[in-house]
Amino acid sequence: MCFAGIWTNRTSVRKVKEGETTNDLYAFLTTEPNTEVFAIHPKAMPVILTTPEEVETWMTAPTEVALKLQRPLPDGVLRIVARGVKEDPAPTAA
């Protein structure tokens, strides 16, 4: 599985001290949430590509064909494996 995303190069001034630079910009595509994601984030979920064929379509098909992949996963495909506040273990002394 992977997220559907976009990439582009952009030349601009992001920091005055650095002047004009060319940077790689990335973003991932979102869609309405399915049932599992809605319980955590009711506004959106990432578009998840689940097969090699979907990845190939996303990477090579005309835009109107690729954008048909902008849909939530079917309900029941994702599984919540943890809930609550993440607790990292305390660092160990070296």
UniProtKB/TrEMBL annotation:
Gene Ontology molecular functions: single-stranded DNA binding
Pfam families: SRAP
Gene3D superfamilies (UniProt xref): 3.90.1680.20
Superkingdom of the source species: Bacteria
GO term, biological process aspect, one: protein-DNA covalent cross-linking repair
Protein name listed in UniProt: SOS response associated peptidase (SRAP)
Organism of this sequence: Bradyrhizobium daqingense
